[in-house]
Amino acid sequence: MPNLADLTAVPGAPGTTPPSAPAPPARRPKRRGRRPRRIESEFRTAVSPHRLNSPGGRIVYWTVLVVVVVSFTAAFVFPLYWMVTGAMKSTEELVRIPPTFLPSKVTFDAYAEAWELMDLGRLLGNTALYAGGAWLFTLAVDVTAAYALSKLRPVLGKLILAMMLATLMIPPMVIMLPAYLTVKDLPLLGWDLLNTPWAIWLPAAANGFNIFLLKRFFDSIPRELLEAAEIDGATPGRILWSIVIPISRPILGVVSILTVVNAWRDFVWPLLVLTDDEKMSVSVGIANLSAQMPQNVLIASLVMASVPTIVVFLVFQRHIMAGLTAGGLKG
């Protein structure tokens, strides 16, 4: 007969043998063939390369490209074209409605009249003097200030740089009156700088944006190069003149171009500080004589006043992008 204890035993109780666990189900053998995967496109553009390489895609691409390039070029170049050709027209043709796209008779008499009647030679000479002096003072002040903040690391240098950059957030018209009072009565010295080139040169040298550009470039110069010069006995001034400035030609070119162009085209500040007719800049002189001149002569004077800045930009345009991006990456 079976034992009563075996019949009444509770599974899992002490002294009892637990039942064996069920065997896990057998795994299915893996298939040797690969499961087809979904092919994702590697190009995330508006038009796929396959469609772009098709005959219709190439036509649409070149059509859109030509239309965009021609439209933007016309938007920027057409005002210059209209100014140059407007000076070649007579006064009657210039005010004709509808206007003529090409001058009926090409003549350069307006340019000769503008040069003689408006005394552009004197005005351009004054402006060249102001722009050249502003360029020299800007390089002397901003380069040394940026070098000190970048490599010499003075006390409270970061605070000084932050205060310089804070001036970029202030509209120029807000500080024009304090700047005028400063130029009229120079602090500590009491000098009156009105109607002198110093009224243009000194404010141009105090430029926080130029100091920031120069400092960013100086930060990218390897410290080991300057330390090697210090070991050889070079002073900080010698290091700046013999090592830092030759390396920094791209950014110095950018600062030079920006300074000369700003000094050449400035109007409001020279109008305030240069009230003498013999010392006016070209922009102020043309504005003062505009009401007395025919329209074609006025346009001719504007063309001749714009030629120097356009030539400077066309000659040195590659230095602008090269200098602005030179200190952006390290390594």
From TrEMBL:
GO biological process: transmembrane transport
Ranges where the record places region Disordered: 1-38
Domain ABC transmembrane type-1: 124-316
Domain of life of the native organism: Bacteria
PROSITE patterns, sorted: ABC_TM1
Ranges of Basic residues composition bias in the record: 27-37
Entry similarity comment: Belongs to the binding-protein-dependent transport system permease family.
Name of the protein in its database record: Multiple sugar transport system permease protein
Organism field: Streptosporangium sandarakinum
